[in-house]
Specification:
The structure is a homodimer. Helices cover 32% and strands 23% of the residues of chain A. By secondary structure, chain A is α+β, with helices and mostly antiparallel strands. Chain A folds into two domains: 147 residues, 60s Ribosomal Protein L30, Chain: A (2-Layer Sandwich); 177 residues, PurM-like C-terminal domain (Phosphoribosyl-aminoimidazole Synthetase, Chain A, domain 2), CATH 3.90.650. In chain A, strands 8-10-7-11-9-12-13 form a seven-stranded mixed sheet, sandwiched between helices. The radius of gyration of chain A is 21 Å and the shape is globular. The two termini of chain A are 31 Å apart. In chain A, 53% of the residues are buried. The interface between A and B is large, with 73 and 73 residues.
Chain lengths: 345, 345
């Protein structure tokens, strides 16, 4: 809310005017988006022969974000990206989103505009249309609930359930950075609360903080896979952490796996910062979550199609289910992977 | 939570087990629901030639419901119905929903089961599939965010924007009852808080309370319209109140209207209870909202197709825009209608 010189209470504008005010900045860009905001429902005309994929994610203040260090524009951007990432994880193209907000009375019209500015930017970057939503007040914090819809040819669809024994396990980018970005932000918040006059030193942590506050979905990877005629046997996006997520694939595919610790990609800033926080870097990669990288399995003969691109790391192999879901450590030992869901309850 | 003899903290079960536990009670019933819960996204195979309609509604504790007098099962049911009602308002058939929940730590596994029992019942009654969702914790109250998807042939679709001068304005059922049901529940809550030993007398108000706590969407009306080859020129569902909602049609259709007070349907219990509360019954119908009846316009020559069915009331006429949006009172005077959005901010 940095540039907000005016502050207009939402009550001054009213519900309908607020919605008009915000949605006029959005225009429809996909041919399948027949009718957007303004009626009881949006209308989508699916491309003949395509299937639709639908996903939804809800982010609640205090649980998924802290407004003390999360700019509203980044929050809006991220709330769209985490949904779109799920659409890509089905090997589909995102096309539409709906956005529901619950806003406490502390929010001004300008704050809502900031949030929607981030949503608009994500829609533009990922070529997605905002076609509907619901905006209500809340006695508690901010809640952002987004549903994303995508399109895919039936033969392109990739589920979590298709991994087979012998398949290679691949992951894009690097892991653990978003988690470490969060640790830095939490540390700076504590310092600020104790010593409000100390300036935070965030520059050297910029990469990690950006991974936390403004993640991107791997649109480029989906295009690469298509261009290189490479269809994964199973895929998902890394939202819970590598460990939980590889276990989702194993459970749905009824297989086991072995992940080789030495091959799990961790960036240099993540590695250094993990040590600074006295955490094992591999733990950040395995349990951190929110990386929004793609985790997928391929037939071994398809490995050459990765073209040696350095965004891909082959980090393990699918085994039979009897062998469980294991990590082969740098020291040569096998550990069972453990899943973590919410840390919140 | 009446029958809950066990209380299991959600933390005991964990996120993934909770989702498995709840979704196993749901099965897919529509042929277009290709893949439901369990992957990054659900998969829908649209019927060839059909369009999809998408709507979303968010309900927040303290704003849209008070858990002191709202059974969780009813809440789950209503949260589905208000979305499905929007699908019918497009003259479409609801097919799928996604459900996102933010739950504070006071919720037990049994409470979540109660909520989903209502969702399941609504899915069964309206032949809709639960295909996805997101369940997270919340530091504040309960938030239920639902997205519904429906299907419609392009030529059947009815927007808000098609009303023309001379069209008749029709509404189904009766109006104002849900608002009065809420007033009764609020009154009983105040009495209970002051005198916890006084038993509430809710029997004679049963109709009104049910309209508030467990509304139904007018599936029967959509079928009637189809069976009688009657396509409205514009339609929406009465969620904000007749006044706001008829003004939505007028704004989108660029027309005016006159509503005849004497013809606005108010049930006998609503009428009596309004007087008891010293409110003009027509005010409840105009501004109460949450009736989830269908408000639509038809060409005058189509009036005979209503077959004199007593669920339909012809309550006014579309005029040109210069005449504004007016109410013709029982006393023969004209008043401007006024819109109300949120009462919450």
């Amino acid at each position: 809310m940095s540039e907000a010189t005016h502050t207009t209470p939402i009550s001054q504008l009213g519900e309908f005017a607020l919605i008009d005010h915000i949605t006029q900045k959005f225009s429809l860009q996909n041919s399948s988006s027949t009718h957007g905001v303004g009626d009881d429902a949006a209308v989508i005309t699916p491309t003949t022969g395509k299937q639709l994929v639908v996903t939804t994610d809800l982010m609640a203040e205090g649980i998924h974000f802290d407004l003390m260090y999360t700019p509203l524009k980044h929050l809006g951007y991220k709330a769209v990206v985490v949904n779109i990432s799920d659409i890509y994880a089905m090997n589909a193209e995102p096309k539409q989103i709906t956005v529901s907000l619950a806003l406490s009375s502390k929010f001004t019209v300008e704050a809502v505009e900031e949030l929607y500015e981030g949503i608009r930017l994500a829609c533009k970057n990922y070529k997605v249309d905002l076609v509907g939503g619901d905006t209500t007040s809340s006695y508690s914090g901010l809640v952002v609930s987004i549903t994303a819809i995508g399109e895919v040819a039936p033969e392109e669809l990739v589920y979590r359930s298709g991994a087979q024994v012998g398949d290679l396990i691949c992951v894009t980018g690097d892991l653990g950075a978003a988690y470490l970005g969060l640790q830095i932000l939490e540390r700076e918040k504590r310092i600020y609360l104790e010593h409000p006059d100390v300036q935070p030193e965030l520059e050297k942590s910029q990469y990690l903080i950006e991974r936390q506050l403004k993640p991107e979905a791997r649109k480029d990877v989906i295009r690469f896979l298509k261009d290189n005629d490479l269809k994964p046997t199973a895929m998902l996006d890394v939202s819970d952490g590598l460990s939980s997520d590889v276990m989702h694939i194993c459970k749905m595919s009824k297989v086991g796996c072995v992940i080789t610790e030495a091959t799990v990609p961790v960036s240099e800033p993540a590695y250094q910062t993990a040590l600074e926080f006295n955490i094992d870097p591999i733990t950040c990669a395995l349990s951190g979550g929110e990386d929004y990288e793609l985790l997928f399995t391929i037939r071994p003969e398809d490995e050459t199609k990765l073209n040696g691109e350095d965004t891909f790391s082959v980090i393990g192999e699918i085994t039979d289910t009897l062998q469980g879901t294991r990590l082969l450590t740098k020291g040569g030992n096998y550990h069972q992977l453990t899943a973590q869901g919410w840390k919140h309850f």
